[in-house]
Amino acid sequence: MSAEVADALSDGTAVVALESTLLSHGLPPGRNLDVARRLEQVVRDAGAVPATIAVLDGTALVGLSPAQLERICAPGADLAKLSVRDLGPTIARGRSGATTVASTSVLAHAAGIGVFATGGLGGVHLPVPGSTVTWDVSADLGALERTPVLVVCSGMKSILDIAATLEVLETNSVPVLGYGVDEFPAFYLRSSGLPVPHRVDDPRQVAAAVSAHRHFADSGVLLANPIPAEAEMDAGLHDRLLAEGLDLVKARNVHGSDVTPVLLEHFHTASGGVSLDANEALVLANAALAAQVAVELAS
């Protein structure tokens, strides 16, 4: 842990974990570093301490220095994308990588951090065109089942099967909260058309729900915060890009963990930057909300 994060946890100050895969794989160089700094600042502005997480040279780091933040955002950094299964081998071999939702949650919990802000959750993938079934399920869902961390996001990425993902979360006893909404958000879109099991309307309600849940179960909690209305992507554009992206995945014979990067890259390039603007707006909003909830939990 960085000294700042360690001191905050020792003093009972609110801390918010932030992932690094969004920075190294989800945003282009230059923009990623700007967003990284802004994320940490919005957490500080709300009264909490940011803890960006990554693995560098075989060490899992909770809280990065300015130089380390620049390193994971540098052009050509070529960091591996690390889920929980990759942490052990990467650390043992002295390698570096950026953490996903799953591995960030696990490392945050190991450090004693109970709140984590991200953009979108992984989930159950949609079958590629021509197929009727998929076995591609994100490790994020298993991590939420086993790790008592509040994950604040804008729902699952809308390139996923949201209904199936919500079913998996229900099976795994992960409470799903909708922040100020009755319908579950869909990342680029404010609504998926699916109901949220529980609605909460302010950070204090969220903190109370999380505290109560922790008396009864060790699973995580998902707080779905819709993208700000002014940043929402046009639904027609979104649906066209998703259909094109799925066709692209089929044509290139892409499978497994390579599917999401291909789909997101198509969204970024074919939308003329609209999806990047949306992604930035929603993750900043999630970091601010996570910090507010963390402050309530700390008090």
Short structural summary:
This protein is an alpha/beta fold.
Could you please describe the fold and organization of this structure?
- With 299 residues, this protein is an alpha/beta fold.
- The chain has a single domain (3-298), classed as Indigoidine synthase domain (Indigoidine synthase fold), CATH 3.40.1790.10.
- The protein contains twelve helices and ten strands.
- The chain has helices at residues 3-11, 21-26, 31-45, 66-73, 84-92, 101-111, 139-146, 162-171, 203-213, 235-252, 259-270, 274-298; strands spanning 15-18, 49-56, 59-62, 80-82, 97-99, 115-117, 150-153, 176-179, 198-200, 221-224.
- Helix 3 runs parallel beside helix 12 (274-298).
- The protein starts with a helix and ends with a helix.
- The mean pLDDT is 92.
CATH class: Alpha Beta
CATH topology group: Indigoidine synthase fold
The rounded Rg comes to 18 Å
* Percent in strands: 5-15%
Terminal Cα span:
22 Å
**Helix residue percentage:** 40-55%
| Low-pLDDT stretches | none
| Overall tally of structural domains | 1
Instruction: Name the CATH architecture.
Output: 3-Layer(aba) Sandwich
Q: CATH H level: which superfamily?
A: Indigoidine synthase domain
> What count of helical segments does DSSP give?
12
| Biggest sheet architecture | 10 strands, mixed
- Subunit arrangement of the protein: single chain
Total number of β-strand segments? Answer: 10
Shape category: globular
Structural class by helix and strand composition? alpha/beta
N-to-C order of helices and strands:
HEHHEEHEHEHEHEHEEHEHHH
What is the mean predicted local confidence, pLDDT?
92
